[in-house]
Write a structure and sequence with these properties.
Shape: globular
Largest sheet: none
Radius of gyration: 29 Å
Strand content: under 5%
Number of domains: 1
Order of helices and strands: HHHHHHHHHHHH
Number of strands: 0
Number of helices: 12
Length: 375
């Protein structure tokens, strides 16, 4: 007699038959819960592991090299070209004027030439600050859209960052000014103590050592705690003060993870750069003495070509480093919002929504008041 509890229909037999090779028959039961797409674009839509934070920045370059590497190369190339042309021309004319001046006027002209050269160097420095701010915004937008599976063109990235360029630039200036002021304070104290003489020299040495250590620690802490400000400014469209508070809040409890990821990526980029550039630098140093024993101009041509090659290689490596280091910061921002605010669910809903949705999944959901004074 058949046990009613063990009775099953032919349909149940069909469902219970193993599929494939028969080694792992399927388990039947309640349908699985809905899960978001594991990886629609650059990264999985879930909190990122530390290893993902390390390799994903390099994937940004590989995924959209024209927009990312192209932007960085254009920006850094323009800055380098302006620096070479402007400082070079000012130096050439200033030193030429000193050489052609009477002997009694040369002292005053040398001081004026030095001042003009220094002032001319400030122009490319200011341009570099602007370029750095713009490039950070470009990479932030690229990483954010690549996470959603989108691939933007270079022109589209540049247009997207322009509305937020002013707060990005202002933040870059403020952060640079704060670090320079701290450095100037330590240097000023050392100079003051040295000028006192006697025991002041010993205190100057002690102040220099302890001040340098304090500056490194303070700089690492401040830069890490505020490293997400560009991402907040661009993606959440907040002003500077609100963005600083937001970055401070997001990195709370994840300081060492944030610092570690940024440091390791920077270390990898620096090691690769040194491996590539060191042989060329050594070759350039030896080339002059080996190729040009008599000091003839024609013999300098190989050295000049090698020097130009070194500059071009430096621009390429600098562009790669800028993209990778900006990418890791943007990825940390997305990861922390996934961990603290469930951004991964919002991104998954956006990916699953109809194409052409006007909603922006990166707009902040917590109650953070926009900072209109710094916007």
């Amino acid at each position: 007699m058949t046990d009613p509890q063990n009775w099953h229909s032919p349909a149940d037999d069909a469902r219970s038959k193993p599929e494939g090779d028969g080694q792992n028959p399927p388990v039947w039961g309640a349908p699985p819960a809905w899960t978001p797409p594991p990886r629609p674009g650059l990264i999985p839509l879930r909190p990122l592991g530390f290893g993902t934070l390390l390799w994903a920045p390099f994937q940004v370059l590989r995924r959209n090299p024209k927009a990312t590497f192209g932007s960085a190369l254009i920006v850094q190339g323009v800055v380098a070209l302006v620096a070479i042309v402007m400082v070079g021309l000012v130096t050439y004319f200033a030193l030429g004027r000193v050489d052609n001046a009477p002997l009694e006027d040369r002292a005053a002209l040398e001081a004026g030439a030095t001042l003009s050269i220094v002032l001319s160097a400030l122009v490319p420095v200011a341009l570099a600050v602007l370029a750095s701010a713009m490039l950070q915004g470009i990479i932030v937008i690229e990483v954010a859209r690549a996470t959603l599976g989108e691939k933007m063109r270079l022109s589209a990235l540049w247009r997207a960052v322009l509305p937020r360029l002013w707060p990005l630039l202002l933040w870059t200036i403020l952060l640079s000014a704060a670090l320079i002021a701290a450095l100037a304070l330590v240097v000023g104290l050392v100079v003051l103590l040295v000028s006192l003489g006697g025991a002041g020299v010993a205190f100057a040495v002690l102040t220099g050592v302890l001040g340098s250590i304090a500056l490194i620690a303070l700089g690492a802490w401040l830069i890490t705690k505020t490293s997400l400000v560009p991402s907040v400014i661009v993606l959440e469209r907040l002003g500077i003060r609100a963005a600083v508070a937001r970055s401070w809040s997001l990195t709370q409890g994840y300081f060492w993870r944030t610092l570690g990821a940024q440091f390791l990526v920077a270390l990898v980029v620096n090691i690769v750069s040194q491996i590539v550039t060191t042989p060329l630098s050594l070759l350039f140093g030896v080339a002059t003495t080996l190729i040009d024993p008599n000091g003839s101009f024609e013999a300098y041509l190989p050295s000049i070509l090698l020097y130009v090659l070194t500059i071009l290689l430096g621009l390429v490596l600098g562009a790669v480093a800028a993209v990778v280091q900006s990418s890791v910061t943007a990825l940390i921002y997305i990861d922390l919002r996934m961990r603290k605010e469930g951004l991964d669910l919002e991104l998954a809903r956006f990916v699953e929504s109809a194409p052409g949705s006007s909603d922006d999944p990166y707009l902040t959901t917590p109650a953070v008041a926009p900072d209109t004074a710094w916007a």
